[in-house]
Amino acid sequence: AQSVTQLGSHVSVSEGALVLLRCNYSSSVPPYLFWYVQYPNQGLQLLLKYTSAATLVKGINGFEAEFKKSETSFHLTKPSAHMSDAAEYFCAVSDRRSGNTPLVFGKGTRLSVIA
Amino acid sequence: NAGVTQTPKFQVLKTGQSMTLQCAQDMNHNSMYWYRQDPGMGLRLIYYSASEGTTDKGEVPNGYNVSRLNKREFSLRLESAAPSQTSVYFCASSELTGAGELFFGEGSRLTVL
Prior knowledge:
The complex is a heterodimer. By secondary structure, chain A is an all-beta fold. Chain A has strands at 3-7, 10-14, 19-26, 32-38, 44-50, 56-58, 64-68, 73-78, 87-94, 104-105, 109-114. In chain A, 38% of the residues are buried. Chain B has strands spanning 4-7, 10-13, 19-25, 31-38, 42-49, 56-57, 64-68, 74-78, 87-94, 103-104, 108-112. The mean pLDDT of chain B is 94. Chain B has no helices and eleven strands. At the A-B interface, strand 4, strand 5 and strand 10 of A face strand 4 and strand 5 of B.
């Protein structure tokens, strides 16, 4: 079964610093990969997704992620953190080989931004 | 623009009571899902419905039942609630299962005493 591992349950950065949230997937075949964000007391919303087009995927709010097959990774980055980026971020995977397979989510990384 | 609507938003139950969480989407999506979110566990899939008339178990289906009432509505029922079912429940929908973007409701916070 597909799975994703998010390294670090909590990441803290200063405002203006680089944001790097790590995600590794387990599959021999590149899956569909997603990053979702959850603001307090809200549902999740899509930041970006990889579905086998460009390996560098740009999302909303200045975030981007790079698919690296050799490292089985899909890390999320943003050059300069803003206070409004404080939220929980989830990496998710779906197996493209199995047709209609629901997304499997990682355990999440809480991002804190310090002024 | 309603999107995905869940009711109720909050509920407190006693052990052994039953309840149904309701979910409706207005985006004409084929697939609908129920996830639960617990601290440190991320989101875990309870049940999903890839299309109207079908339902399938997810990772943690025990203690739950679902009904895909029509294309718009997908309900989650707890027949005999247990404290382990205290959680935040999210309904989501997508045009396709797997590759499509999930659209989430705002969540339903359930406490079982």
